[in-house]
């Protein structure tokens, strides 16, 4: 219809031009006949007539082109603003210029709205505390908010148009990827001043309908303070707070590294176990402050005379250890150790002035060597301790080398392995429960299941003694499954008699997690006893968790999918950070009892516990403090905002019957310890 209108205008213009020329010619002929014009028409007249005809034709063509152009622009603008075909048909008779003007006005309004929306989005992003960086699909920065500019020290114009990798530290450029992985990652940016800023970030793809461009939006948060706190925690967890030398855990770790090198390079290692004689008398006579000063002096002197390729550590109380690497033959090592031990006894035995008193310290030393006296950390330290025991009983020498005859414990160890298997087969093992108490309310919220073994001839065998035996004999797997069955059976019994039994936690070993069908076995046990997964919590030590993280995370995700709660046991005794633990579906973190004990001993102990609680809460984890033995410790943990506590303050681990009685008393408000929460 519109095309016909334009064509008709062109035809009308052309016909009018022809008629005008014809009229001029007719007038000229009439004039000639009338005598107004004589002879042949003047050439100039004919040229004028021809010019008029050509001008008319050009005018017609120009009008047609203009009409066509206006129509094309009007049609394009109509499509741009989204006018429908019916509206176009209704406006067919409307002037194209008028329609074009209306369409351009609509386009202008839309552009203004878009600008307003864009400005509003930028204002929203600038109100966020997190740094926001928007890139295109190739990683070229398209926009940053105020927080990102402030964190990095760059103005927006200095970042926009450049690859985001330019603003990452060199070691993170290859590992940083733009992906919509729906998880939190860590990286490090570099500021305008060249400083590194560790960040926790998430990345999402921009593919929302209506956006003119696609790419990625990165939300990053500065975690410098958290990293500093974690480094402080790791340091304090490895170093003895009093003597500032490696603690028992760190010394064992360093000794393990030595053993690995010795196995590779055919080296020898000597472990010297030192003990301050009659240290209790020093404490009783001069006070604990003087005793601490003596221990600090021992550590300082040890560090000063320590040979090359050696480490020292404080194992416990007044007990210290030294580990020495040796490249020569064993005879030469023996001779060196005899000379070095005498030097130690002389130097550490020098008088010490404390609070105006001259204190004389005497030491005893036990020595064990790798590989002659043991090929692992436990055996070396135990055998050096056995040699120390013999030294203290001897009146002839202040140091002794380990001898196989000293180790009567080795024979007992073999006998215990046999007895443990027999006790398991005869169903003589027991499960006791240590209650967990809510710090805010004093209510029992669950318990930890602890396996117990009692022998008629020697009484209770400690878990620290028989669990390693079970690990060595692979008996830990059937014992672990037996514990799970027993716990679920007890839960089923309690739930039929009382509401609110709490969640029961069970410890898992590395060998249990290594079973290919472990998840299905857990599910079968739950179904067999008709126990909801939410009633059970599985505890994994930090060391087990990080031994094979790729395999462990798959198993834990399967267990979490069943509805089971997962907990980290003895946190702080391993070498992972809370950041590393973010990848696991962990809901609860248990602080090792060694840290709880230290909160009353020194400031560093309180700092560690406080930092762990704050970091765990920032990661939406509940915190359980184990090993609570005094009201003062409980008071500290209340102030530090701990969630749950367990320990001897609330009673010894108890039988299933006694735990049920505690649940009844708790429900009636009659539990003995509830007075501390009033």
Structural write-up:
This protein is an alpha/beta fold and 678 residues long. The protein contains 25 helices and 21 strands. It has an eight-stranded mixed β-barrel, surrounded by four helices. A five-stranded antiparallel β-sheet has the order 2-1-5-4-3. Strands 7-8-6-11-12 form a five-stranded mixed β-sheet, with helices on both faces. Strand 1 (131-136) and strand 2 (141-144) form a beta hairpin. The chain is globular and about 110 Å long. Mean pLDDT is 81; it is low at 34-40 and 84-93.
The end-to-end distance, rounded to whole angstroms, is 90 Å
Largest beta sheet: what is the strand line-up?
13-14-16-17-18-19-20-21
Low-confidence stretches: 34-40, 84-93
Largest sheet: 8 strands, mixed, barrel
Mean pLDDT: 81
Please tell me what the overall shape is: globular
Going by helix content, strand content and strand pairing, the class is: alpha/beta
Number of strands: 21
Q: How much of the sequence is in beta strands?
A: 15-25%
CATH class categorisation of the largest domain: Alpha Beta
Q: For the CA atoms, what is the radius of gyration? A: 43 Å
The total domain count is 4
| CATH topology annotation of the largest domain | TIM Barrel
